[in-house]
Amino acid sequence: MKIISVVNQKGGVGKTNLVTNLSAYLANFNKKILLIDFDPQANATSGLGVEKDKKGIYEILNNEIFIDDVVVEVKKNLFLIPANQDLVGATIEWVNQPERESILKKTLASISRDFDFVFIDTPPSLGLLTVNSLIAADYLIVPVQAEYYALEGLSSLLNTVNLIKKGLESKLDILGAVITMYDKRSHLSYEVWEELYQHFPGSIFRTIIPRNIRLAEAPSFGQSILDYDPSSAGGRAYKRLAKEFITKFNF
């Protein structure tokens, strides 16, 4: 079982779209996937058609309920641990707890099902929830919007990852960055992609996720792009990304 945290401290970069759609396509390729919504906004939860007020990861972390009691089977091979707004209070409640950065890691050690991959969708910040997700993970994926501020944001995140690895003895590896919201009509998008690849040649997925209205619409219907419109440009891109992801693990 490999645990992958999907992180970017900047909001609006397509992070939740990435984690839900990649998870859906991997499940379609017969990989058993668990998606943990670790963002109090619970967008991954609603984006997969699950109600936001259900008990989920917050209650698990507070030992109010067992993991297996809240896992939702979204579709064949795709399972979800929901989030709700109570997760907002976790960072305050954990302030005085010992080893508060490792709470999620210890909890995930009790997962009893045999998953191929566990994905963690994180808040758009580098707060305690995100740090917990990084400590718990084996690998990191970073969605990066095709804009000029992207390079600065990616550099900052990579520095944070290095600090965590040194200070908290984490074995986290960077699986790669995924360029999202790419507009092929914009010369700016191409320039940003080129600059990112020059600076991080070993950490950029080849698959680029385009700006696509069908991708933007799908979450409002509680569906991944695989279920909403797999023939769209966004659907085809996520299918390619899932295949590229699988090759990194020699499946």
Write the layout of secondary structure elements.
Layout: E1 2-6, H1 15-28, E2 33-37, H2 43-47, H3 57-61, H4 67-70, E3 72-75, E4 78-81, H5 90-93, H6 103-108, E5 117-121, H7 128-136, E6 139-145, H8 150-167, E7 173-180, H9 187-199, H10 213-217, H11 225-228, H12 233-247
Parallel strand pairs: 1-5, 1-6, 2-4, 2-5, 6-7
Antiparallel strand pairs: 3-4
Helix pairs in contact: 1-12
Q: Spans of 5+ residues with little confidence (pLDDT < 50)?
A: none
Helix % is 40-55%
In the sheet with the most strands, the strands line up as 3-4-2-5-1-6-7
Number of helices: 12
Helix-strand makeup class:
alpha/beta
Query: In angstroms, what is the radius of gyration?
Result: 17 Å
Q: What is CATH's topology name?
A: Rossmann fold
User: What is the mean predicted local confidence, pLDDT?
Assistant: 86
Number of discrete domains: 1
CATH superfamily annotation: P-loop containing nucleotide triphosphate hydrolases
Straight-line distance between termini: 13 Å
Strand content: 15-25%
The SSE order reads EHEHHHEEHHEHEHEHHHH
Largest sheet: 7 strands, mixed
